[in-house]
Amino acid sequence: MKVSEHIRKVPRPINTIVENNGKPGPNQYAVRERAGIIYVSVGNPKPKNGHVIGHIIDNKYIPLHDIQEFAKPDSLSYGSAALVRSVSKNLVDDLLAVYPCRYIRIMSVASLRVIRPSISNYLISQQYKKSFVSVFYPGVSVSPNSVSNLLENLGMDGEKRKAFFKRRIAAISKEHHIAIDGTLKQDTSTVNDLSNFSYKGRVKRYKEISVLYAYDLERMEPVCADVFPGNSIDASSYPSFIRDNDIKDGIIVADKGFPHARIKEELSARPSLHFLTPMNDVRIANNGMLDIEGVLTGIEKQVLYKKAAIKGGHYLYAFKDTGKYAAEETTFLSRAKLMITLTRPSMNTRRKHFI
User: In angstroms, how far is CA 17 from the centroid of its own chain?
Assistant: First the structure.
């Protein structure tokens, strides 16, 4: 659009032009530098315009770096960012081997999600500028769109995820133990093919997804994870998770939905893989599992236990958390006392009955 004469006469650097983008505001009149000359076969050479170096604002030329010089925080949050960095250095080599171009952005987003677990994609950029994550991983684009694209691409590339998990599993020390467990997470998304009604979710009327993960018990950190449909039973999802990630050692923590027959079938080819599943049958009484005989060590809570060998080379375990037991007993007695009070007839009622 045409630029008025008084705007063109505003003092500005030489070899520049003024452009009018037609949108009222501080950026309406952009000042561009001359980048060179374009020679044509017929006619006079034409000037070539370069980058915007400033704007005409309120009849004054303002350089671009002055316009973009936003306020910076006086201080950055250090402690949490430094702690996350100190305990996640072992991830860098594996990320560099599998995601050489994305590992910095992955570490930035993951670190911020650890520091602020419930942070949304729209606030990650703000948190990035306020913490030392921006110092440890400088120049990372963590805008909402960038973060969404990153997570989407990571989710679609299953082969690279498996390659990364394989490196993580291979790095586990032989003296450590791997626990394999699962959980259901509420997910009512209409675009997620894995969102479905689980057995309990159908009663509660919301959809869920099933997340299986393996973690190092000694280091207390996850090794690999995968997502399955919310209506997937353990007997189907656990074997698939173990085979896809080639897990040869570990302890499967399952529930009643994982039959013993399927567990034995899966463990026959992996002798170093064990299982721990709840039970409720006559073997509890036959082996006196309710007669606690020892104190579990290595944990802060006061937990009693009993261990008994049974046929087939398996063991039964019974655990009793004394803290939870005392709290449950207190709650039970309080409710029983309340029920007695509510059902007992009042003095007035008894007096009327006597009369």
Answer: 50
Evaluated on CA atoms 95, 99, 103, 105, the torsion sign reads negative
Distance CA 227, CA 211 (A): 5
Q: Which tens digit of pLDDT belongs to each residue from 78-99?
A: 999 999 999 888 888 888 889 9
99 touches 106 (CB < 8 A)? yes
Phi, psi of 101 (to 5 degrees): -95, -15
> Pairing relation of β-strands 178-186 and 221-229?
unpaired
pLDDT at 71: 59
The CATH architecture annotation of domain 176-278 reads: 2-Layer Sandwich (3.30)
Angle at the Cα of 196 (from 191 to 197), degrees rounded to 5?
150
* Closest listed residue to residue 215, CA positions, set 181, 266, 191, 248: 181
Residue extents of the structural domains in the chain:
5-67, 79-156, 176-278, 324-354
Rounded to whole angstroms, the Cα distance separating 61 from 8 reads 11
pLDDT for position 80: 92
127 contacts 77 by C-beta, under 8 angstroms = no
Q: Which tokens hold the place of 288?
A: 């006196």
Q: Tokens for 280?
A: 């409720």
Answer yes or no: pTM beyond 0.70: no
Q: Say how far apart CA 105 and CA 115 lie, in whole Å.
A: 15
What integer pLDDT is reported at residue 110 of this predicted model? 92
Q: CA 149, CA 267: separation in Å to the nearest integer?
A: 39
> Residue 219 is which amino acid?
R
Calculate the alpha carbon distances from 134 to 78, 142, 210 in Å.
Answer: 10, 10, 34
- Count of beta carbons in the 10 Å neighbourhood of residue 97: 12
User: What percent of the chain lies above the pLDDT cut of 70?
Assistant: 90
Question: Using alpha carbons only, how large is the chain's radius of gyration in Å?
Answer: 33
Least reliable range by pLDDT among 152-156, 157-161, 187-191, 298-302: 187-191
The closest of 177, 155, 162 to 243, measured between CA atoms, is: 162
